[in-house]
Amino acid sequence: MSITGNTIGYNALKSNKTVVSSGHAEPTPSTTVIIAPSLSPQVKKPPSPSPQGITPPSPSPQDTPPSLVPFTAGVLLIISFVVIFILKARWHGKSEQDQQDVEDDHIKHVPGMPVRFSYQELCVATDNFNERLGRGGFGSVFKGKLGDGTQIAVKRLEKRGQGMSAFLAEAEAIGSLHHFNLVRLIGFCAEKSSRLLVFEYLSNGSLDNWIFTNVQGSFLDWQTRKEIILDIAKGLAYLHEYCRHTIIHLDVKPQNILLDSSFHAKIADFGLSKLINRDMSQVQISMRGTPGYLAPEWRQPLGRITVKVDIYSFGIVLLEIVCARRNVDQSQPESAFHLLTMLQKKGDHEDGVIDIVENLDEYTRSDREEITRMIKVAAWCLQDDPERRPLVSTVLKVLEGVMEVDSNIIYRFSHAMISSPPGNNHISSAPPPASVLSNPR
């Protein structure tokens, strides 16, 4: 037998009837030969056959052929990469879930939000969102009824990409707001991708369905209109001056004023609103609101905004309530197309401002005096220079007869010809940040 390295010569294979390759032997029934691998040439005599019934020992780890070491290491390396990948994927998924849990937990602890509804509960309450009450800046509102018979309005946020942040901001901000002239929040739903807010239901709907004589044939008497104006002013005064933070609504219009069964007005839809600290007098934000109700300072390059933009919008709404028509009415002749244009023409004779009101024969002399004062208040709120506009608390004092209207009102409105399309169309040139409220309260 000749031996070179780990190779067994042909003669040995032939005489022992055993096939051996790379140091491993495959025993025949008659003879078993075990050849250990060697790193240098040397002669190994086959051991004596094992006694019958005794199994030869298995090779030890150090007996593993060198050719298998790289293969084993490669397999272990691949397994390690797979394990690391799986653990990393699980950790990433857990991190996202933890973030979601933190956000949901944050909602749970918002003050003033006593009820957390499941999505299924609200589906049942709204008959699978069957009756739509309206559509706002960030979603639709549906009518519903809870198990105890309480009627509700459910706002479902629909805009993707900002639904969560808008929902969290609104929930955090409006949860602490409590005022009779703000729509009351009952509860909420935060379930997977569903974000819903549950509000009290106001049976008489939005103000625009009542103050315009060409809408649904409805009409409100002067006393009711006057009370509605006072209610709106009280709600705005709370937002601007009396709650913990200053809240600029940014979308005051008849569609966002709701009426209860007794025609008390409540401000709703905070879809574009901005919450700022009380030590801030102004804030720089992108243009947002509804054409026709936008203050002229929105056109300035810096876009520095104060609560006076709400005062301007309130002035437009006041005019619409008093005159029982829209600010811009395309059904009117050209001379009466725009209320501000008419007011500007009549402003040279302050006692003549009441001429912008139609059907004056329906009003008593005392009503006319109040109407004249209301129109002057509106003109005061509509001054081009925001510094010349009053605070809402001052407006309230004038409406209640405690103060007089400013005698230096300028009846020149550079923005008088800006059009105002009807409906809920609004401008929002950028998604609202986290400090924006997103719905009626």
From TrEMBL:
Domain called Protein kinase: residue spans: 127-418
Residues given in the record as ATP binding sites: 155
InterPro entries given in the database record: G-type_lectin_kinases/EP1-like (IPR051343), Kinase-like_dom_sf (IPR011009), Prot_kinase_dom (IPR000719), Protein_kinase_ATP_BS (IPR017441), Ser/Thr_kinase_AS (IPR008271)
Protein's membrane topology: Single-pass type I membrane protein
Region of interest (Disordered), residue spans: 39-66
GO molecular function: ATP binding; carbohydrate binding; protein serine/threonine kinase activity
Name of this protein: non-specific serine/threonine protein kinase
Organism name: Populus euphratica (Euphrates poplar)
Taxonomy of the source species: Eukaryota, Viridiplantae, Streptophyta, Embryophyta, Tracheophyta
